Amino acid sequence: MQGSRFAFGPFVLDPAAGTLLRNGDPVAVGYRGVRLLAALVERSGEILSKAELMDAAWPGTAVEEGNLTVQIAQLRKLLGAAGDDSDGGVDWISTIPRVGYRFTGAIERLGGAKRKPLPLPDKPSIAVLPFVNLGNDAEQESFADGLTEDLITDLSRVSGLFVIARNSAFAYKGKAMDVRAIAEDLGVRYLLQGSARRAGGRVRINAQLVDAVSGDHLWAERFDRSLEDIFAVQDEVTAKIVEALLGRLRAPPPRNRPKNLEAYDLCVRARRLMDDSPQSAQEAHLMLTRAVFLDPEYAEAYRWLAMNHWMGWVHSGGPEEPARRVALELARKAVAIDPNDAGCRWILAYLLAYERSFAEADAEFARAIELDPNEADTFAALSDIAVLAGRVDEGLEHIAKAFRLNPFPASWYYLALGQAQYAAGDYEAAVETLRRDETYRTSSRRFLAASLAQLGRLDEARAEAELFLVGNPHFTTSHWAATEPFRDAATLKHFVDGFRKAGLPE
Q1: Which residue from 273, 300, 303, 365 has the fewest beta carbons nearer than 10 Å?
Q2: Looking at domain 125-246, does it have CATH number 3.40.50.10610?
Q3: CATH architecture of 4-112
Q4: What's the predicted TM-score (pTM) here?
């Protein structure tokens, strides 16, 4: 799952890690230089226009062409700074007058840098890989995805198991990979694979449980049932896996299940749109509103609708009281309908923290973890709240646990990690985290700007602050400080200091 590295002459470039090595030793190249060099070597031999290169190094912003000229000159100097004659005088980057630049060296693509293997947990560990849709109708893809997600949720509620989160499991959708490689990537021993076909009011499901260490199939079964029995089939598959891995059939408390299959389909489609874009969020809003109309006792639909309202005001630059109130009401309704759903609990906890109902929020977070010790989102959200309460070490522990359960998470995990690293004073680590492609173009830029400012890199900090304000034009430090759920004055002062040094508006 890691990006490629590129070898040329004595150099090895790792764009994902942001490093350039020469004969194994680090070369002091800046962030812009790495992005420029990556763009050139990835298309070695091709002419890249100045506009393409400026977009690679300064995405989303307009810069003077002279900045590109300076960066290219610095790259040439670094690549030619030998200390010996091993480079043979190679001019790695050639100028194409009035057009752009071309990388002229021979490139060897090395493949991804090998990640350190994740240690296996001290309990049976499993990932549910996306079920394959065997139907001819592409619209049934969401049904297969929903089945996968529900099985992940059901298994993660079993305290004796370690279960990888949905986001990381779906990183493998459509990829042909050896089960051992996937298991090593995710740090688990067991994988559940399967397929689903839905047609004519019936559903056919094949599922198999594989021991990735030995390659043995521990359990396999085929289900051919009426579509109305789909949730009973999910419960049966969960029970079989728990029995195979733990030798017992004791199941967690029952979950609220939808009574209307159209509402279920709408919810499955909507939850994949939540974080994509404002337009996607609007589509999700329409789907979820329709879902709760069709099934007024469907807890999960209320949960996601609550988050949809919440994200609406977060993305608009500040809290609007009607949206906050509606989001909290919906989250409370979700918990009232299904008090055993950890997802409903952590979302309610998060919203309560922003309402300064800290005691109730802490209780809801604790209950969410008790109900589902594998819910990675709970730990990521709790990290955010703990850091703002001044419990920085605790926040770092929570986000580390979230990443272990969800090694390939959504972008907001990196925001939470970078925020915790900033609060801990580890600014270099925060910069590395917040410049990852997964989170770089999101609102996490404000923390990146603050981290750069605390390192004294004020030009970079102010550039990142300007980029942040493009997407958040109404942002002010004072409004942010007043609305975030801070419980510790020193932590608040630390963040405000970084924002001010970066040049963010007062």
Answers
A1: 273
A2: yes
A3: Orthogonal Bundle (1.10)
A4: 0.78
